[in-house]
Specification:
The protein is of the alpha/beta class and about 180 residues long. Helix content is about 20%, strand content about 25%. It has four helices and nine strands. Strands 3-2-1-8-9 form a five-stranded parallel β-sheet, covered by helices on one side. Strands 4-7-5-6 form a four-stranded mixed β-sheet. The protein is globular.
Length: about 180
């Protein structure tokens, strides 16, 4: 229910950035069977599970883009965590993946933009800031990593500037 949103449309437009194995996509399709969904997932191993899960749940009309959502188009390095996640990294320690700029996909009203991009939330939001007025609902899974600067206040500032209201929830118990 974390991804629940209301839409008056029969075919809401949903951008799922960081679709992982597709549980969010299946939920969106259950909520709005006629929805138009673009699912972005760069990890080749997880992408296989995403495709299987969408097929088994009869979500055949979802557009899958096997790329990392990024601030621009180009090649990136992606490090898998060896389980069900991974993230874009700045060194060549990861696999080379293709990155795609999010802004061109926000070319019409977006009923839900889900960003689960493992620490790259700020740079992606900043790169498409001028199009956020087209987004009705925005779900961000914020990631903060040890030894990296905190960026939540900057993300919230962008959301406020663009007229969003926000609610903060913790996905897991806090650790020291």
């Amino acid at each position: 229910q974390s991804y629940f949103f209301k839409s008056k449309k029969q075919r809401p437009y949903i951008l799922d950035c960081g679709s992982n194995i597709g549980l969010s996509v299946v939920f969106f399709k259950h909520l709005y069977p006629g929805s138009r969904i673009i699912a972005f997932e760069p990890d080749p191993k997880i992408l296989r599970f995403l495709k299987v899960n969408l097929t088994q749940n009869r979500c055949d009309d979802v557009e899958i883009i096997p790329k990392a959502v990024w601030e621009k188009n180009g090649n990136l390095f992606f490090a898998s965590d060896g389980a069900d996640g991974g993230k874009v990294v700045s060194t060549e320690n990861g696999k080379r993946v293709e990155g795609t700029h999010l802004a061109p996909f926000i070319d019409e009203e977006v009923d839900l933009l889900k960003l689960d991009v493992e620490g790259n939330e700020l740079r992606i939001l900043h790169s498409c800031k001028e199009k956020l007025f087209l987004v009705r609902n925005l779900f961000i899974e914020y990631h903060s990593f040890k030894d990296n600067p905190q960026e939540l206040s900057q993300i919230l500032c962008i959301l406020e500037q663009e007229g969003f209201r926000y609610r903060l929830d913790s996905a897991s118990p806090l650790r020291r």
